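Quarterly update from the structural biology core.
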Amino acid sequence: MNVDHTRSKTLGWLGALAAASLLASGQVHAGAYGLAVNELNNFRITTSAGTLSLAGANRNASDSAFFQGGVAVNPRAVNTGPAANADVLQVCSGAGCGASPQNHYAPTAALEFARGDAHSFGNMLTAAGSTVSAVSEAQRNSVGAASSTAGDTLTGSVNLTLSSAGFITFSFMGRRDLLANVTTMGDKSNVSIMDIFNISCNSASPVGCLSKANADGVIFQFAPDGDANNGSDINGNHGAGSLDPFSLNMTAGTNDPASGRAFTNGFAMFSLTSNFALPAGSYTLNFSKSTRTDIVVIDPLVVPEPGTLFLLGTGLAGLAFTRRRRPS
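Predicted structure, tokenized:
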């Protein structure tokens, strides 16, 4: 057998393998993953004098998921009173859902999914407080988009009544995780957490309420900024007892494999107290917490390594040489 012919044939097969590898590598390495976890334990609203009561409020726990190319799961919600459980069964869409939901701490590379999970229970006006959890997560390894949301809000005509003038305190033990990763340049992963807790004036509020409020009628708001010594609140941070160990309203995103974004904290104490005693009377309590994850995987532009290009070129040349040397 001609040695040159055998060598050329071998190089030809190697070139074909290199070409197949290039064609396959685009999808194998594409991917995006996002996670947002927001948990509160013993969430309480207390007053320094008298008692607090809630009227006209419903708690709404809801979640939704969307998976491009699969079945979109419509938003689902459970409405209960503010002291009752509001559990929504986890929703999940995509090939990776199956019978067992994903563990949001151990995403599986072979599966694609979007899921939302929200639940809350307990009374935020008692010593035991309320427990609230919202998790959104999505992962794709192929071209397309996926998104999920989860949240808990108070809806309806939410009237918070103080029996006598007193300082108001929001407090809880909280933790949050944010994670945004992609494996191919140009893929996108965005995650966010947002919490809103505030007290505002309404038509039944005491005279002079609006004089202490901002343009939106908010008299005391819970909007921490991550500074342990100062909550970025309106008429808040009374005394030295307020704690602000982390920011509650956070976002993280990336479309660069070298720049993953992550934030994780264990449970930490948060409290924020108004800097003046609110007069006795009725106010509106606004409570909302949510998580959201959005990811997009694009058709990646494959840039082969120089060695692979050399092997491909050599193989093609070998195939051409083999064809020329083939006897008639």
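The chain has two domains: 1-29+303-328, 30-299.
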